[in-house]
Amino acid sequence: MFDRIAPVYDLMNRVMTAGLDQRWRRITAQAVVRPGERVLDACCGTGDLALAAAAAGGAVTGLDFSAQMLERARAKSTAVTWLEGDVLALPFADGAFQAATVGFGIRNVDDLGAGLRELRRILAGDGRLAILEITQPTGALAPFYRLWFDRIVPLLGRVLPGGAAYTYLPASVRRFPGKEALADQLRAAGFADVAYRTFAGGIVALHTGRAA
Ligand SMILES: C[S@@+](CC[C@H](N)C(=O)[O-])C[C@H]1O[C@@H](n2cnc3c(N)ncnc32)[C@H](O)[C@@H]1O
After folding, report:
1. What does the DSSP 8-state code read for residue 149?
2. How do residues 74-101 score in pLDDT, each as one tens digit?
3. pTM, whole model, 2 decimals?
4. Nearest CA to 58 among 38, 88, 80?
């Protein structure tokens, strides 16, 4: 599915978020990346969060299991080491990284708990994790959000060439745990100091944690 989305992925991001997505990636990278440290951007896709982590000074490896996504990432920069691989079986030693980021990716991983435990495993003690993900808003924005995700995003997917695979998005967001539940899963996977903030009126959440 992600191989099919790859040609329109960046365009869809910009259209769906009115161009705010790159700002969220920059904030995510700056939350956990310190200059000179080794950083894994898992589920890197076309590479924008990995590039934000590199801009924040990290020595970044971007990993994804979609060859088509990675091809686009490679075309953007040689400053990041791009690697094909599965977040559920990361090809790195325990404690190999000081920070890890995942942008709009963990929601798609088959086994969320196992993915979070793998990310914990490859982080050194006190290593930092940032997860940027779509979440379900509560309160006044909720009806608008449902209209956007259930009707308009799939419509955009049909109108934009190659965007048909975007019909997957609403279902994947509905299945994914809410903000508190994700924070609990992070704690269960071995992270401490778990915190989150939201963007765009609560539609996107940034969770951070420290490898305990
Ligand atoms: C929605 S894209 C996010 C791309 C990028 N991180 C961003 O900020 O836009 C989700 C990515 O997760 C990748 N992915 C999903 N499950 C994966 C897994 N188990 N291992 C590696 N990559 C995975 C997909 O191939 C896809 O490129």
Report:
1. I
2. 999 999 999 999 999 999 999 999 999 9
3. 0.93
4. 38
> Quick one: tokens of 40?
């894994």
d(CA 130, CA 208): 4
Assign 141 to helix, strand or coil.
Answer: coil
Q: Is 165's pLDDT higher than 70?
A: no
Multiple choice CATH, 2-137+177-211, 3.30.460.80, 1.10.150.120, 3.40.50.150, 3.40.1390.10: 3.40.50.150
Structure tokens at 1: 């599915």
Amino acid at site 18: A
The model's pLDDT over 15-47, given as tens digits with 9 standing for 90+, comes to 878 889 999 999 999 999 999 999 999 999 999
Asked if 62 and 50 touch (Cβ cutoff 8 Å), the reply is yes
Domain positions in the chain = 2-137+177-211
The ligand 1 site (C-beta within 6 Å) comprises 2, 25, 43-45, 48-49, 64-66, 69, 86-88, 103-105, 108-109
Q: Of 44, 46, 64, which is best to mutate to test ligand 1, by the most ligand atoms within 8 angstroms of its C-beta?
A: 64
Q: Which residue is it, tokens 């009126």?
A: 201
Burial of 93 (C-beta count, 10 Å sphere; 0-12/13-18/19+): exposed
